[in-house]
Design brief:
With about 425 residues, this protein is α+β, with helices and mostly antiparallel strands. It has 8 helices and 23 strands. It starts with a helix and ends with a strand.
Length: about 425
């Protein structure tokens, strides 16, 4: 063997295993990122995606995933546009999921880019991008075709809402409840004496609870251990006297509604509501009226108008009876969710993708009329509703004020704070 051939052989022997090792390290890091992204831990996913993208700057699939992560982090949404723009320049319908060798982004990059433009108030670019994405859909994919057409219409309507902002006052509820972490899903009992909310801790989302004692709120305590639940769950209602806590718990592709009772100074283990309420389909966000006799919730069970619909159940002999769909005045072909029933069952606040929105989900109000039908839902307006998803508004009293959580670039205590707003 010649010296040249020997050198080539030695190079081949040592470089090929080294390259295989490098590729394995990249693949392992990619799978770590995929795991976090799949579980909605977008910040953790970025800690893997970003170094990978530095090493593989031509990988549009990585750019797509980075853009989606930024789009789901409240303080980073403005960074999503650049990455999704890069991803949308190299797309393919052929996919090799779970592999770092997948270079082209999916066509969904166009849809996510449209969302990114809209959320960042770039409505003309959003409209143009959604139109491009619409051309990639098959004609028989009717559900997605109609949804993208709706997104295109929203881009024009959003400008009208923003040109006519509503008047209200807003008050951060303070450092007793807000800190450097994300606080969300604020709930208050109708007697104004019990307050609950959720906070994002390092390894899980916790439920915090406070009581009004001698005119002052007690220090919030973590009641998650009392509930004896894990995984993804979200609180949705405190009863009028603060003795019942409703929540929905997600399990793979299913979600059911549960309740816990306040006994003494502790909360009981959660109990699933009956089969009239929970089915093999998706049920979430149960909320009861002040008298405790009506339960409103969201479900995608068959027989609705499309996606998640809102249903109401009456209490019969101490338990929940068969629910009734709230009808086409409330429900659309898209999703309705997070209902709150006040004024003894005569006023409902809820989130919707399908009515006249500023973008994504918006919060709406409707009132029960004398003919038994709900009034046309009214958008709460900008800037209470934004071009992003606005899904959770806890009304109080007669609905002229309420609580929600928001991330603000200036002011506040952390990632998302809880605010009380009052309409003028």
């Amino acid at each position: 063997m010649s010296k040249r051939a020997m050198c080539l052989f030695v190079t081949f022997v040592f470089i090929i295993p080294l390259r295989a090792q490098v590729n394995k390290e990249l693949q392992d890091a990619f799978l770590e990122a995929e795991y976090f992204m799949m579980n909605g831990d977008y910040s953790d996913a970025l800690t893997y995606y970003l170094p990978l993208y530095e090493k593989l700057p031509d990988n549009s699939n990585l750019a797509y995933r980075i853009g989606v992560c930024y789009l789901n982090i409240p303080s980073k949404k403005n960074l999503s546009v650049d990455f999704l723009s890069i991803a949308s320049k190299n797309m393919s319908a052929k996919r090799k999921e779970g592999s770092i060798s997948q270079v082209a982004a999916p066509y969904d990059a166009l849809f996510e880019l449209g969302k990114a433009y809209r959320i960042n108030f770039k409505f003309d670019q959003a409209k143009e991008t959604f139109t491009k994405y619409l051309a990639t859909l098959l004609p028989d994919d009717q559900e997605n075709v109609e949804f993208v057409k709706h997104e295109i219409e929203v881009c024009d309507k959003a400008k009208d809402f923003i040109a006519k902002p509503v008047s209200y006052t807003e008050e951060n509820i303070g450092e007793l409840f807000n800190d450097e972490k994300s606080q969300f899903n604020p709930l208050i009992s109708a007697d104004d004496k019990s307050f609950a909310y959720m906070v994002s801790l390092k390894f899980y989302d916790a439920v915090m609870f406070s009581k009004l004692i001698n005119g002052k709120w007690s220090a919030p305590i973590n009641i998650t251990p009392d509930l004896q639940t894990d995984g993804d769950f979200y609180i949705s209602c405190l009863s009028a006297d603060g003795k019942l806590l409703f929540l929905s718990k997600e399990d793979n592709d299913n979600s059911d509604i549960y309740v816990s009772s306040y006994v003494g100074e502790t909360w009981t283990k959660i109990v699933r509501l009956n089969k009239n309420i929970n089915t093999k389909y998706w049920e979430s966000h149960g909320f009861i009226s002040e008298d405790g006799n009506q339960l409103v919730f969201a479900s995608d069970r068959p027989g609705g108008f499309g996606g998640l619909d809102l249903y109401i159940s009456q209490k019969v002999n101490g338990d929940w009876g068969p629910p009734v769909n709230l009808g086409p005045e409330i429900n659309t072909q898209f999703n309705e969710d997070r209902p709150f029933l006040i004024n003894n069952g005569k006023t409902i606040f809820f989130s919707s993708q399908g009515h006249e929105t500023i973008g994504g989900y918006d919060i709406f109000r409707s009132d029960l009329q004398s003919n038994g039908l709900w009034s046309k839902p009214k958008n709460l307006g900008y800037p209470i509703n934004t071009p992003d998803d606005d899904v959770f508004f806890m009304p109080v009293g007669d609905g002229k004020s309420g609580y929600y959580s928001r991330y603000k670039e200036t002011g506040g205590y952390g990632k998302e704070d809880i605010y009380k707003i009052t309409f003028k």
